[in-house]
Design goal:
Elements (H helix, E strand, L loop, with lengths): L19 H6 L1 H9 L8 E8 L12 E8 L7 E7 L18 E8 L9 E5 L2 E2 H9 L6 E8 L11 E10 L2 E12 H25 L1
Antiparallel strand pairs: 1-2, 1-4, 2-3, 3-9, 4-5, 4-6, 5-7, 7-8, 8-9
Length: 213
């Protein structure tokens, strides 16, 4: 945590589940497994971290968190909702929302395994000033303390005009405002469009492998 290890990553194609013999014998079946329309094989992770005004990751206590993602929306719902939880009682690994102008909150959401790669990153958080988050929090008089930011999926057509909502829940612990949860909401049509792009990446990888034989 607190380094650029999640940003300087390698590129590989999505993995299909099942044996190589099965994929070779029935490519359409393998394609369906990669697509995973019902998200039966979904595993995801996110890393949320603090950046300074130069885009450099923090290297001090309270600069980054990482956690698995869970899909908490109902199957077939209009929006696919992902949730990550961060224990605020952890004294070492937490993210503090600092009420200072030079700090931003930024992060990445990816699927498949815990190792981040360019091709399995499906959403990137737009850098948001932590001070702007605090301004949102100051307006909340009671109940859970929440603030919002936006994120993008660069694999979508016209993605810059299709932001996703990311909602953060925070808790105050020992005079620090700590990130407790992140909820990402993705419209289902955008989620399906991204997964179709994943299938094309997978096919591209297979074609490249075939030419190298």
């Amino acid at each position: 945590f607190g380094s650029n290890q999640f940003r300087l990553t390698s590129c590989s194609t999505p993995r299909a589940f099942g044996s190589a013999q099965t994929m070779a014998a029935d490519p359409k079946k393998a394609e369906k497994k990669v697509m995973d329309v019902d998200d039966e094989a979904f595993c995801g992770f996110c890393n949320i971290q603090q950046l300074d005004q130069d885009g450099i990751s923090g290297r001090t206590l309270g600069s980054a968190v990482q956690a698995p993602l869970q899909i908490i929306s109902e199957p077939g719902a209009d929006n696919v909702v992902f949730q990550a939880l961060f224990p605020t009682i952890n004294p070492l690994f937490f993210l503090e929302l600092r009420n200072e102008e030079q700090f931003y909150i930024w992060g990445q959401f990816w699927m498949d395994g815990p190792k981040h790669q360019q091709t399995n990153n499906f959403v990137t958080l737009n850098p948001t000033k932590m001070q702007d988050c605090h301004k949102q929090l100051d307006k909340i008089e009671s109940g859970p303390k929440k603030c919002e930011a936006s994120a993008f999926c660069e694999f979508l057509k016209n993605y810059t005009s299709r932001p996703f909502k990311v909602e953060f829940t925070v808790e105050d612990k020992k005079f620090k405002t700590k990130l407790a949860a992140a909820i990402l909401t993705v419209p289902r049509e955008a989620w399906m469009e991204y997964k179709q792009y994943r299938v094309r990446l997978w096919k591209s990888g297979k074609n490249l492998a075939a030419t190298e034989k």
